[in-house]
Amino acid sequence: MTFCLPSNINKCILPDYKMKINEKELKVIVAKLPFSQGVLRLAYHGIDEYGKRVVLKLLKRMGWEEMGLKRYLEAIECQTVAYKFAQEFSIVNNDNNKIIKYTVARVAQVKNSAGTFFTIESYIDGEYEKFNNNSGWRNNDMSLEILKTFSHWTHHLSKGQ
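Above: the chain's sequence. Below: its structure in token form.
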């Protein structure tokens, strides 16, 4: 499952906005062991039915209420809206050398399972560096200035949501 990209950035931040879901069956081979983990998720390498490398993320078991489909859909909804914000920011940003892109995530349910879900994203080769978090921390590296600008712009446009 994935969300259809919102057509209007202002509508998608309204409290009553409902994103449309697109469902499709996909076959993926998943590694047996995670290659990385964060505070909330385990990350696994995978290969989809087209031979494309993907990353599958499984929520850690922090309580059954966090393991359901609703939690996964909330995560990819947020990522889909961020993708739309990045598209809009690229239009208003005058520096074409600094473009922000998001990968579109999908939710997958393991076939014949009652509640095992993953998020699936395209594999992106490279090193990753965090530039801020939800607690207010931010990286003060000046080369990340465009990311700080984007973060501030999205906070302002979404009225802090």
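The chain has a mean pLDDT of 81.
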